[in-house]
Amino acid sequence: MDSTFQTSITRWGIIGCGKIAEKFADDLVADVPNAVLHAVASRDLERAKAFGAKYNTPHAFGSYEEMLKSGLIDVVYIATPHAQHHENTLLALEIGVPVLCEKAFAINTQMVKEMIAKSQEKKLFLMEAIWTRFHPAINQIEEIIKAGTIGEIKHIVADFGFLATYDENARLFNPALTGGSLYDIGIYPLFISKLLLGKPSEVKAVATLAPTGVDMNCSMSLAFPNGATASLFSTFAAKTDTTCTIYGTKGKIFIAGRFHETFGFTLELTDETPQFFETERKGWGYSYEAIDVQRCLAEGRIENDRLPLQFSLELMELLCEIRSQIGVKYPQEA
């Protein structure tokens, strides 16, 4: 490992001061070695100051551009609503700041292609913040699957749902803010199926739409070139178990809820006693992706080798195909 990664301080900035930014900041400050939250930005300066005060952050800005141009940060975490990711990412990369951008990466495939092109043009790091990718549980599950312990994967079942109070102006239901269960939480079941099975060869989706036109429920069936299938579901209408089961020819792996941030999983092989594996999850679970971003920066990478930009592009293609099938359109695409 590059010695720079071990010893130098990475100065982080955050754009957007909402709930997910707060969780990321909690973990950054508590569990990421050689990291400091050096600046935060919100379109509301007082909000930025209040957010920064929780973490003794020395700099707060009421302008994203001002923070990005300040020279005070080495990398920025973009935690604004989905609809702003494309604009915010391009701004940061154009100014010269590496980017970790929350999922969903953008609104559509064209936007993601533009983000990737700007990263390559500027030779600057860019990564989608799919934090689950870096969790110890997922790493261990991948190793078990690659070792052939459960045989060939034949089917994956995964869900994510919670009961949300309907409010047409709230982020979850507002089309202008890229609302809908698919982009907010359906991305997690899709992610785990893509991580383990690759790019699907066939996708079928149905949904129940909210009065605002975004999806309240979204049910997805996927088929893969190797013959495997997946049944995936997301909803704002009910609290679901939010688990994942991976069925193989020799057994199965059950990832306990909530599977995308789990503390453990069960390995159950045919005719054998189930084994439970307790796994580490520090804090909220966001530190692992931040640590890996710092590794990539130290190694001079412009994309993460464990979560490459092609993966994010294909994931967005999948999201857009599902949106097309269920009839969800966003005003930014008009």
Automatic annotation (TrEMBL):
Keyword annotations: Oxidoreductase
Residues covered by the Gfo/Idh/MocA-like oxidoreductase N-terminal domain: 11-127
Domain GFO/IDH/MocA-like oxidoreductase: 139-253
Pfam families given in the database record: GFO_IDH_MocA (PF01408), GFO_IDH_MocA_C3 (PF22725)
Signal peptide, first to last residue: none
Entries under InterPro entries matching the protein: Gfo/Idh/MocA-like_OxRdtase_N, Gfo/Idh/MocA_domain, GFO_IDH_MocA-like_dom, NAD(P)-bd_dom_sf
Highest taxon, organism lineage: Bacteria
Similarity-based family: Belongs to the Gfo/Idh/MocA family.
The name this protein goes by in its record: Gfo/Idh/MocA family oxidoreductase
